Prior knowledge:
Number of helices: 10
Function: Catalyzes the oxidation of 5,10-methylenetetrahydrofolate to 5,10-methenyltetrahydrofolate and then the hydrolysis of 5,10-methenyltetrahydrofolate to 10-formyltetrahydrofolate.
Largest sheet: 6 strands, parallel
Organism: Sphingomonas ginkgonis
Strand content: 15-25%
Protein name: Bifunctional protein FolD
Domain Tetrahydrofolate dehydrogenase/cyclohydrolase catalytic: 5-120
Bound molecules: nicotinamide-adenine-dinucleotide
Keywords: Amino-acid biosynthesis, Histidine biosynthesis, Hydrolase, Methionine biosynthesis, Multifunctional enzyme, NADP, One-carbon metabolism, Oxidoreductase, Purine biosynthesis
Shape: globular
Structural class: alpha/beta
Number of strands: 11
CATH architecture of the largest domain: 3-Layer(aba) Sandwich
Amino acid sequence: SAAIIDGKAAAQALRDRIADEVGRFRSATRRAPGLAVVLVGEDPASAVYVRSKGKATIAAGMESFEHRLPADTSEEHLLALVEKLNHDPTVDGILVQLPLPAQIDESAIILAIDPDKDVDGFHPVNAGRLATGLPGFVPCTPLGCLKLLQAALGDLRGKEAVVVGRSNIVGKPMALLLLGADCTVTLAHSRTRDLPEVVRRADIVVAAVGRPGLVRGEWIKPGAAVIDVGINRTEGGLTGDVDYPAASAVAGAITPVPGGVGPMTIACLIRNTLVAAARRDGHLLPADL
Length: 289
Ligand code: NAD
């Protein structure tokens, strides 16, 4: 049966490395990298994410600036805050927690963030940089998935990768990252004809759909690596998009939910914040961070 990819351990190891690098950054530049996190409203899941992001930032030796705004905040008000953060020299990374209340246009807010402080990698300029192979910021969840795959498999060159789900936040950037790692990439989605047959040819499967157990054990090629991005709240607790018991009997390696991709997402946010600070100050970081 499959090796379990321990995302918690991988994330802790990455966070330890980042904390070391933050120490070197601070001695070299006499300042700490700073991450500003903006939360609008009181969505409980968002509040949990924001809290753990703030904690991880501080644990890495960085500064965390939290901005909590009421649910009825206007778009103009939020745009003005983003503009202020864009020009604040103590802020290296800006993260506006999504989803935003209905009166605010999310894409207008994302467009307003300075692309060089966009540590979530959601700005179209960063999407374009990823698509064309330029340095920029890559969304944290797919970046974490790539790091898990590289740690589990080493070189990904020539492998057949199938990504299920084509969102701008996960599926699309995941496909581009795997392409950049020289995989042969298929991007499947809700209109894909014969998804089981498409998944069957994959050496690497990344499931990012949001439907519990969508990817069946019989679809998995024996020995394949399976990355389950899905977070579904069901009566039985948190489950992923992959039928874990069946898939883990045939896969070579698989991420659990929880404890797989989730912890890597936050570690990569901290990583992107350090990278943003280092680029601004011309500070050199290890190429593989
Ligand atoms: P989304 O709803 O934006 O996109 C879902 C995608 O799945 C769409 O592109 C759609 O075409 C595809 N899809 C829907 N039904 C399908 C079907 N039957 N067959 C094949 N494809 C189908 O979702 P998202 O933001 O990409 O998130 C996907 C999942 O990942 C969710 O469960 C979300 O909670 C989770 N997620 C986890 C993390 C993390 O840190 N672990 C981060 C982001 C999202």
